[in-house]
Amino acid sequence: MLNTAQAIIDPVEMIVDTIKTCVDPIKTVVHTVKARVDPVETVVHTAGTIVSATETIIDTVEAGVHSRFLCRETRIHPAQTPREPPEERNENRRDTRDHRHHIHRHEHASILSRSVQIVTRCDRRSVLSARSVDNCFRINSVEGQRQAQGPARGRSRHRLGSMRHSPYTCVLWDVDGTIADATPGIFPRLLEVLASFGLAAPDPATMPRWVGPPMYESFQLLAGLSPEQADDALGRYRELAARDGYAASVDIYPGVPDVIRDVAAVGIPQATASTKPESQVAAILEHYQLRDMFTAISGARSGTIGRNDGKSDVIGWALERLQAAGADTSKPVLIGDRHHDVEGAAEYGIPVIFSEWGFGDHSEGESAAFRAADANALRSLLLH
Length: 384
Description:
Structural class: mainly alpha
CATH class of the largest domain: Alpha Beta
Number of strands: 7
Shape: rod-shaped
CATH architecture of the largest domain: 3-Layer(aba) Sandwich
Strand order of the largest sheet: 4-1-5-6-7
Strand content: 5-15%
Order of helices and strands: HHHHEEHHHEHEHHEHEEH
CATH superfamily of the largest domain: HAD superfamily/HAD-like
CATH topology of the largest domain: Rossmann fold
């Protein structure tokens, strides 16, 4: 009997010893798990602190937003809205504030929800700091306020233009007949030069043909002067221009300066590409406070060296100077009023917007990509 009992006890003792052997590693695992749970509890505690801080930020921002709206409403001029009875006006303002309050409460709740989700995804290897949650909240809150408020009253049209975009990466401008009407100065000087050669005054109907192309070329083609005479005539003409002042008797076409400023406001680089002497181009833009709108100025060179500078030359220099300034010239467009603009741009594969208010005949713009009847039409082609 004892032998039988002993035979049973021996295996049981072996099982107990085996169990003890297994329990020790389990205890080790338990201690290890507990050691890893403690940091997780710390993370949870930190997350709770962050949520509380975020709620405090929400309350503070809401108070500031409501104060701002109240201030904006009290600055409304009586002429901007019809007069209402005091009771109706107060009720309408209260409804507006309630509606805005609801919008911002909804936005803030959404932001808080996203912040909490981020916190709960933290593990032992990363803990979201209060500063990062605060920054996240600030960014989304400000954007939400801008969307809810819409365009600010009194914001300039040029700032609103920053929301537009252009199909072009840079804009090249002809000057005479596109930006400026210099004929009040050009024609009297031209007549004086022609008279000095004993030539009669041209037919008034043909005078616009002198505006746009290089003057050296026009003295030969339109006045019949030899190359030597044309060179002399060009020198006399430029002396008269310097005497009178390059910006004297120059008018700017209506609306064009606004287009130039709008294009600059959206960050599109601009350059002139005029066969007018570069010094004269700069003087005109400076006089009308447009110089700062241009990244580069390109015009004909002064002196004898520049007498044959054509449209393709000044376009090439404009592109080079834009590139040197870091501008993207992959999708340029040229605005001009003569066939010289269209032909010169074609050498670079540049599309042309033909300015119909200039001196070119209607047929000169047949190969242009687009036509613009006025500054408003030009703006719609440049900015969408």
